[in-house]
Structure prediction request, 70 residues.
Amino acid sequence: QASCNQQRATHITDVLLMQHSSSELTNDVIAEKMGMAMGTLHQAKKILYKKIGVQTKQRCAVVANYLGLI
Prediction:
């Protein structure tokens, strides 16, 4: 069950990160809202972008919009 909870937490983090990244918020503000250090935020974005097959914040926003997250 821990694995399931960990996956759920990862999915929630991914959704929040996609939503925040699709806004006009700066990385500093996103990190603060998500309770992450800047290095952790950058690592999380790198992993997310790889998962969804994008390389930029703008393309992430396109995917988020397509998925109905924004």
Remarks:
- The first helix runs from residue 2 to 21.
- The CA atoms of residues 21 and 57 lie 6 Å apart.
- DSSP finds four helices and no strands in the chain.
- The chain has a mean pLDDT of 88.
